[in-house]
Amino acid sequence: xxxxxxxxxxxxxxxxxxxxxxxxxxxxxxxxxxxxxxxxxxxxxxxxxxxxxxxxxxxxxxxxxxxxxxxxxxxx
Length: 76
Hints:
With 76 residues, the protein is mainly α. Helix content is 46%, strand content 0%. It has two helices and no strands. The model has no long low-confidence stretch (mean pLDDT 75).
């Protein structure tokens, strides 16, 4: 096949994909704006460690691999 024909076919496929994505995006926007949309997080709970060093340590312990994190990533 000619080079131009291949480029036209590839361009047509890309345009078709973008049209499909635009239709899907419009559908998602419509669902989000309507009252029929609900979000549930059954298993999305996780423990968050304290971010400051002076905070209470009654929560979960950090893994030992995080003790040397600054040296692993070349920190100051």
